[in-house]
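Memo to structure team: turn this sequence into structure tokens by end of day. - J.P.
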Amino acid sequence: MQEVEYKITKRIKNYERNFNFFAAIATVITGIFTWISIQLREVLLIESGILLFTTALTVLSVNLIIDSKVKSHSNSWIFVSPPTKVRSKVDELCEHRPSLLEGNNPVTRFVSWLFKKSWAHFAIIFPSFVIFYIVMITGLLGYQYLGSSGISLVNFASDISWLFWFPLLWLLTWIANGRAWCQTCPFSGQAEWIHRLHPWKKRNKKLGLNLRWPIKYSTILYSAVGFSVLTWMEEFYNIGGPGIPMLTSVVLIYIGGLELFISLLFQDRTFCRTICPLSAPLAATTVISPLGTFRAKNSEVCKSCNTKDCMKGNDKSFGCPWFASPGSKENSPMCGLASDCYKACPHENIDWNIKKFPWLSDLTGGKKRFDVALSVAILTGVVLFQFVNALPFYTMIDMYLSAITGWENIARLLVPSLSQFGYSTYGYPNPLDYFAINSIPVVVLLLVSKMEQRRGISLKWGFTSLSYALIPIFASTILARNLPKFLGGSPLILGEILNPLGKSTSVLPTDSGILTILHSLGNHPLNATAAWWVMLVMEGVIAFGMYLGIRASDIMAESDGLRKSSYYTVIIGFGLTFMLITYWMSSPNNPALPFYNPYLGNLIYNPLQATPPF
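Reply from structure team:
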């Protein structure tokens, strides 16, 4: 028995070693490709090279860090359980929730009927598939020049991507489910159709090698780090300004191409579960969404089931392509709403619940995922940067660091020929201050967890629980930061439908009737600012996130064993910080007004004078 176990362990260890070897080879090859692109001064190749190189480097780095901390070859390190003294309290917490799949009303009957159909997921994905191919084409072929404020407001590709789609991702968290985008994602759709050899029918074979991603590395930390790196790239090239449209197209082509490549190497939606830069933020926000995920009605039925069709599939239906067991509550953030488990379950034991307000039931009770917790801390740091970078003092520090480190000279090598489109840079954002700001939430959570450790709470459990409580703050602030673009600029897309390329238009839509309406509401998209009342909406969204965070703190203090004061320190501290920065970054920044500060803008001003920046 021991000899068999030794052979299995050795085989797994060799597989992990080979996996990291090829990740290292990929890192070297993509690094060389990026260097050659820089020598050729081809900016689209440089952008593609940086995307590929940072992806390979992220996978390799995360794996090596895991290897240095985890000696086992399973994914048990991902999960963390509450202290024994509070487990009895945890098990008592339950919540009855209405269902989207059961009932006699027309909505539940329709939803239940739809998701039993094999073609349902294809029908949901296909519209976004068409739209995003139009986006990629118009971004490459359309008008590329920027206006005086450094943004483009005439090309359908960049505008629908950054003024509408990206803010919509975070809005869906609060009105449906954070994973709603995963359910409609065109990139995962096309990869799945090719991998399965049909858009919806079950075939006996799948295209590709169907390798398994090493179980030890089955984590969304790649996604969290990838989201941080991709955000840095977006800021560096001003892709989401909205900036030069072809740069947006390159990012979309990269994601679609990489997902297809991964799907032909590994099983099903391995890319979605691990590497996709949106997976971690959407997984985190799903935990507090009003609409739940596909979940087992009765976990005991799952335990007694021998076929596990929900995971493995059967003759008629596929198993879950996300490998997220519906009987496992702690894995609910990994459910991509593919609905395959609902079709495959022979016991009709799968439900899709609507949570009761305040939608916090998935935060409490039982085990939690440490990788989700660490991802939340990293992602909150990304959002913190997006707030801080709008303050005057940040630009001063960033320019100083870029000058003394020589980064501004390196930055110029990465943006050849973009100046012809009106783009210029001194190297913003400097990688040093960017990743320093990103690390602030991680450091704060560690410090507070250390205080709880003195009370006998393990550091890992304390960090995980505090980070879960921070999810409402992250979800509210990432939405709030994107509201100026959504409320102050997204209607411009309506005027671009008949002229998506923007080629017969001036740099800015100065004659647009929609622009006139936006002006009448107080918005000034040509200056990349929204109306004063948008700031109030932003503050309200963050305040609501604080409210949910405090509610979560009260519940989790009982279920997880930490002190309320520790939760309050994190929730109120970060919440008030974001609210204060929102007020300052929206200031008119006018030296003629009282209470002007050259580092923070107008410290106190009339909210009617607010100009929230895109």
